[in-house]
Amino acid sequence: MTRSPFRLLRAFLVTCLLAAGSGCATDEPDPLVVLGPWTGAEGAAFEETLKALDDGTGREYTYEGTRSLRETLLSQMEADDPPDVAILNSIGELTEYARRDKLRPLAGEAADRAYSPWAPPLIVNDLDREYWVPLKVDLKSLVWSRKRASDDAPTWCVGLGSDATSGWPGTDWIEDILLHQQGPDFYERWATGRVEWNDEAVKHAWTTWARLLGDRSRASVERSLTTSFEGGFDPGGNARRGLLDTPGFDCTHEHQSAFVRYLYGDDVQVQPAARFLDGQPEHDGVYEVAGDMAAVFSDDPGAQELVERLSSPEGRQRWRDKAGPAVRPLFPKTAGAAPTGSGDPVERRIHELLTEEARTLCFDASDVMPPILRDAFHRAVLEFFRNPADARLDRLLEQLEAVRDQMDEDYRGDDSFQPPDDICASQGG
């Protein structure tokens, strides 16, 4: 009698279950899991890149994209089930994970691609090593406007909403002003906890921001506090339209990172922010940057290989090829895959600023700070924006200094929350 193939399969599965899997395991390894911040079109492009990169490796790559990256990663680590690779934008968080032995040092060519200032070397257990590599970078210190808008008396678009991280567009303002007023050395010491928050130079950056924004009505302030940095939706409710196009925002200029180019068409221009920030001319060639860095959380050798492939010139070019014009990634100048032949003049201009004209790049200060201090900075910016009085500012800066002091007290002898010192890097040569 011939047995049904379905009965044979069922018998095989029962045997496997009874044997608790012994003798039934396949030779195929588990998929490598990558946790990252990109969703929507960005996430789809990165997922397609992973599919292209797994060719010939014998491994399958699975991508999990989330806007709640820190919360998701912490939950997975608490469950003792971290991803093989995670992509984070916070040096403060990465430093904490590395010094608590949650990360694996990079190996091979990936370690050579730990470009400054995105991936400074870190001393852990008395060894100086590289723990993450920038995959995608963003240029900050930019101002967006319509091509015909006058720069003589700009009115500023401000949208501070961003779910759990609301306030970061305001911290970007203060960081950028401080960088251009005081220069990279002072900025670096402040961002890494070696300058007090109530220092007069730091306070001056906050008051400069308030003065540049000018007088605002209560309705305007509330609108900025409750509106996303992405602006409103188009009439159909299907796509974001950018703050320059959002009804109710009577503004001509926007201080924002390079990534917002996906919100606008070809009728905008982008300029270095230095001329708008009441800074010193000698600091005009200094730019603030951000980045999305890949770190290895597992002992699987395939995770190291994946980061090496992603960070290679070939991997970056594949990513650009998979991404649409509005979400094409930018890379450090040493990483290849420049937007040659791109028909987008805004993208070409940003790439020129990042790779050719910038003399010094400094990493986003709040993303260098320990998460506790970074979050307090975000909240203080929201309070100051609502009421930029001098007395309020003094109180807020005292509170931030108290957070810094308390962290020094709580973690004395524990360097897990101490960021690396070198977060600015010369781009000469």
UniProtKB/TrEMBL annotation:
Leader peptide range in chain numbering: 1-25
Keywords assigned by UniProt, alphabetized: Signal
Keyword Signal found: yes
Gene3D superfamilies: Periplasmic binding protein-like II
InterPro entries per the UniProt record, alphabetical: SBP
Key word rRNA-binding present: no
Region (Disordered): 313-345, 409-429
Name assigned to this protein: Alpha-glucoside transport system substrate-binding protein
Native organism: Streptomyces poonensis
